[in-house]
UniProtKB/TrEMBL annotation:
<dbReference type="Pfam" id="PF02826">
    <property type="entry name" value="2-Hacid_dh_C"/>
</dbReference>
<dbReference type="GO" id="GO:0030267">
    <property type="term" value="F:glyoxylate reductase (NADPH) activity"/>
</dbReference>
<feature type="domain" description="D-isomer specific 2-hydroxyacid dehydrogenase NAD-binding">
    <location>
        <begin position="109"/>
        <end position="280"/>
    </location>
</feature>
<dbReference type="GO" id="GO:0005829">
    <property type="term" value="C:cytosol"/>
</dbReference>
<feature type="domain" description="D-isomer specific 2-hydroxyacid dehydrogenase catalytic">
    <location>
        <begin position="5"/>
        <end position="311"/>
    </location>
</feature>
<dbReference type="InterPro" id="IPR036291">
    <property type="entry name" value="NAD(P)-bd_dom_sf"/>
</dbReference>
<comment type="similarity">
    <text>Belongs to the D-isomer specific 2-hydroxyacid dehydrogenase family.</text>
</comment>
<keyword id="KW-0560">Oxidoreductase</keyword>
<dbReference type="GO" id="GO:0016618">
    <property type="term" value="F:hydroxypyruvate reductase [NAD(P)H] activity"/>
</dbReference>
<keyword id="KW-0520">NAD</keyword>
<dbReference type="InterPro" id="IPR029753">
    <property type="entry name" value="D-isomer_DH_CS"/>
</dbReference>
<dbReference type="InterPro" id="IPR006140">
    <property type="entry name" value="D-isomer_DH_NAD-bd"/>
</dbReference>
<dbReference type="GO" id="GO:0051287">
    <property type="term" value="F:NAD binding"/>
</dbReference>
<dbReference type="InterPro" id="IPR050223">
    <property type="entry name" value="D-isomer_2-hydroxyacid_DH"/>
</dbReference>
<dbReference type="Pfam" id="PF00389">
    <property type="entry name" value="2-Hacid_dh"/>
</dbReference>
<protein>
    <submittedName>
        <fullName>Unannotated protein</fullName>
    </submittedName>
</protein>
<dbReference type="InterPro" id="IPR006139">
    <property type="entry name" value="D-isomer_2_OHA_DH_cat_dom"/>
</dbReference>
């Protein structure tokens, strides 16, 4: 029997499998995540940790959890975890890839359609009474057919977005090194051709701030930016300036830096911007599947078996 700490109440019934396997389960009951101090006070003596992308798993935190064998992240992205510190301590790390691909790709398309067809502006016109009549020139947007989608990060999610975009009649191009795992065009060439740029890369030291002033200046003036990856991939100051100056036509972000984005953040005053609260994987089916895989990884790590979905 092992002790495990779970940093939030999970959807579905997967967590019951831990107590059925004889483990002692401590679940953080609050809506807000535990602070680092609260984590440290709960994690001592735990062999398993099931955490969320909101939890920073630092070397210091790991230092307070001498018995920890496994960190199971209920997310595909693991930029919240100090992977090197985990490896140094022999702590296994698992994530939840695959099951959230379709939900996240659906959301990228939802954002693309919403920003290109100006749905938030339409909704506020209805609410405010600015919708006076059908007008030939009212809220005209861009349609997707024959437009070019540029994918940054053509992995599982990027490819699922490409498939959906092709069904809408878009041409899809991607950036990548010729000899890389997902070969494609040089980034600047891809950006100069795309009508919509959609970002799907993980957050790494290489991708942090990738969408900066020069990235945005290389995009076409009528182009739209979609980000469903991680907020830190975009330099938000540069994005706010590009939107205000008309260097690009609009942006739709499901992820921001920080999260939550304060409601008085200057970014929110930029024109033609949609921000949603990190909803990429937010469907009942996907979140239950993520919880289930996170429990599978935790059980395997506690048993000393290879994780079904290992990160390291
Ligand atoms: C969500 O952003 C995830 O990484 O699962
Ligand atoms: C639009 O509603 C049309 O009928 O053209």
């Amino acid at each position: 029997m092992a002790r495990c700490f779970i940093t939030r109440t999970l959807p579905g019934s997967a967590v019951e499998r831990l107590s059925e396997a004889g483990h002692a389960v401590d679940i953080w009951p609050e809506r807000m995540p535990p602070t680092t101090a609260e984590m440290i006070s709960r994690i001592g003596g735990a062999e398993g940790l099931l955490c969320m992308l909101t939890d920073e798993i630092t070397a210091d935190l790991l230092g307070s959890a001498a018995d920890l064998k496994v960190v199971s992240n209920m997310a595909v992205g693991c930029d919240n975890i100090d992977l090197i510190a985990c490896r140094d301590r022999g702590v296994h790390v698992g994530n939840t890839p695959g099951v959230l691909t379709d939900a996240t790709a659906d959301l990228a398309l939802a954002l693309m359609l919403a920003i290109s067809r100006r749905l938030p502006e339409g909704m506020s016109a209805v609410r405010s009474g600015d919708w006076k009549t059908w007008e030939p020139n009212f809220l005209l947007g861009m349609e997707l057919r024959d437009r070019t989608l540029g994918i940054v990060g053509a992995g599982r999610i990027g490819n699922a977005v490409s498939a959906r975009a092709r069904a809408f009649g878009m041409e899809v191009i991607q950036s990548g090194r010729p000899d890389g795992p997902t070969p494609g065009l040089p980034l600047t060439q891809m950006l100069a051709q795309a009508d919509i740029v959609s970002v799907h890369c993980p957050l790494t030291e290489e991708t942090r701030g990738l969408v900066d002033a020069s990235f945005l200046a290389t995009m076409q003036k009528h182009a739209l930016l979609i980000n469903t990856s991680r907020g830190q991939v975009v330099n938000q100051t540069a994005l706010a300036a590009a939107l205000s100056n008309g260097d690009i036509a609009g942006a739709a972000l499901d992820v921001t830096d920080p999260e939550p984005l304060p409601s008085d953040d200057p970014l929110l005053t930029a024109p033609n911007l949609i921000v949603t609260p990190h909803l990429g994987s937010a469907t009942n089916r996907t979140r239950e599947a993520m919880a289930s895989i996170a429990v599978d990884n935790l059980l395997a790590g506690l048993a000393g078996s290879p994780l079904p979905h290992p990160v390291i």
